[in-house]
């Protein structure tokens, strides 16, 4: 065998012994038999040999190439087999229990809503619901809120413009929508319209709570454009302010899990007379004054009072026979005060780092 061929074959065999992957094997193949491979190039030199040597060199070259190809093939089969053995020998512990996907928890507001409805159901109240898009008659007029009341101002109320849906031209809902005049549809500014809807459809005795979303054009640390209220209504013969006080004191003890100081501050709401703000003694400082209660020792929960006779009349209930009380509390503020949340915004941002704190 010509010396140059023998050198290449020996170098190849030495390199082959060190190959331990299919990728390295491929590189070796290219280095020797590729277009610019060292063995391929030797073939090109055949033309420079005297004619009598060419035939012998050609036969030797073929032998070397075949030997290299066979060795490559053998090594490839060996590497494949080794990889297969490794794969088979791998031990997977199929008895390990799978990782649990992270489970979500109820939003802190939903937790409060549940606890509130459970508390009032225990006190004998049933749950009532009303729509978010409300007629101004129920949101204002029937609640004795006059047309010039500041709450009707654009600063507080989101008005809805009735809109004919082009795809439903002959739909009766569309016709009803078009009969509404501007300013008649609003996003309910409180849950009090549920009082009206209930009294229009049920006869006393009535004992309901309505929990839900409410909307106002308001935005700061303790006011949000979308927030939640719980409304309570109790109507029967001989209902007095003393019933209201007793119920709210009972509820506070049940909800906060301990007896808290409470206070009723005279206040004005057109749909009650007399009216009051209901405050609880700050559950954090125990009344000494802290940042959460703005150093007053009390936290305002919402309004309450005796149902105004004008509201009874608008709902077809005789105010000479029946009396009743109502309240409307801010659910978000109650949640904030319960967990010392500094800004209302945290409730609606959906930040998992905040939500994880309420398992
Ligand atoms: C009312 O909404 C009356 N409907 C409550 C009522 C019902 C009084 C029945 C008498 C009888 P007020 O506007 O004060 O009242 O709101 C009640 C509570 O809702 C407030 O004390 C506060 O806790 C909460 N609230 C009001 N506006 C916002 C807001 N923008 N963001 C968060 N909470 C709010």
TrEMBL record:
Gene3D superfamilies attached to this UniProt entry: Bira Bifunctional Protein, Domain 2
Molecular function (Gene Ontology), one example: magnesium ion binding
SUPFAM superfamilies: Class II aaRS and biotin synthetases, tRNA-binding arm
Intracellular or extracellular location(s): Cytoplasm
Binding site for Mg(2+): 273
BP GO annotations: phenylalanyl-tRNA aminoacylation
Annotated Aminoacyl-transfer RNA synthetases class-II family profile domain residues: 113-359
InterPro entries: aa-tRNA-synth_II, aa-tRNA-synth_II/BPL/LPL, Phe-tRNA-synth_IIc_asu, Phe-tRNA_ligase_II_N, Phe_tRNA_ligase_alpha1_bac, Phenylalanyl-tRNA_Synthase, tRNA-bd_arm
One annotated Gene Ontology cellular component of this protein: cytoplasm
E.C. designation(s): 6.1.1.20
Cofactor note: Binds 2 magnesium ions per tetramer.
Swiss-Prot/TrEMBL keywords: Aminoacyl-tRNA synthetase, ATP-binding, Cytoplasm, Ligase, Magnesium, Metal-binding, Nucleotide-binding, Protein biosynthesis
Cofactor(s) demanded: Mg(2+)
Catalytic reaction list: tRNA(Phe) + L-phenylalanine + ATP = L-phenylalanyl-tRNA(Phe) + AMP + diphosphate + H(+)
Matches recorded under NCBIfam families: pheS
Record's subunit section: Tetramer of two alpha and two beta subunits.
Family the UniProt entry places it in: Belongs to the class-II aminoacyl-tRNA synthetase family. Phe-tRNA synthetase alpha subunit type 1 subfamily.
Name under which the protein is recorded: Phenylalanine--tRNA ligase alpha subunit
Organism: Nannocystis exedens
């Amino acid at each position: 065998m010509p010396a140059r061929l023998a050198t290449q074959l020996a170098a190849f065999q030495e390199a082959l012994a060190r190959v331990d992957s299919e990728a390295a094997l491929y590189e070796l193949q290219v280095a020797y038999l590729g277009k610019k491979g060292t063995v391929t190039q030797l073939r090109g030199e055949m033309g420079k040999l005297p004619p009598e040597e060419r035939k012998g060199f050609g036969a030797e070259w073929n032998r070397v190439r075949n030997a290299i190809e066979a060795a490559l093939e053998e090594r490839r089969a060996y590497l494949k087999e080794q990889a297969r053995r490794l794969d088979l020998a791998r031990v997977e512990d199929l008895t390990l229990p799978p990782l649990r996907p992270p489970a979500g928890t109820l939003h802190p507001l939903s937790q409060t809503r549940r606890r509130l409805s459970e508390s009032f159901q225990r006190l004998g109240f049933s749950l009532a619901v009303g729509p978010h898009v409300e007629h101004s008659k129920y949101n204002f007029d029937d609640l004795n809120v006059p047309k010039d009341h500041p709450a009707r101002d654009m600063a507080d109320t989101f008005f809805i413009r009735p809109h004919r849906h082009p795809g439903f031209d002959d739909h009766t809902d569309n016709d009803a929508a078009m009969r509404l005049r501007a300013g008649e549809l609003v996003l309910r500014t409180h849950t009090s319209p549920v009082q009206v809807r209930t009294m229009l459809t049920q006869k006393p005795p009535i004992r309901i709570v309505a929990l839900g979303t409410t909307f106002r054009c308001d935005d700061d640390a303790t006011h949000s454009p979308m927030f939640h209220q719980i409304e309570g209504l109790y109507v029967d013969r001989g209902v007095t302010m003393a019933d209201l006080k007793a119920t709210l004191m009972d509820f506070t003890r049940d909800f906060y899990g301990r007896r808290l100081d409470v206070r009723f501050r005279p206040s004005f709401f057109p749909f009650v007379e007399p009216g009051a703000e209901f405050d609880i003694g700050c559950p954090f400082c125990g009344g000494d004054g802290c940042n959460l209660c703005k150093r007053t020792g009390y936290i305002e929960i919402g309004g309450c009072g005796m149902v105004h006779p004008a509201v009874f009349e608008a709902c077809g209930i005789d105010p000479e026979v029946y009396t009743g009380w109502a309240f409307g509390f801010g659910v978000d503020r109650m949640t904030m005060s319960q967990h010392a949340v500094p800004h209302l915004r945290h409730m609606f941002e959906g930040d998992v780092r905040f939500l994880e704190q309420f398992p």
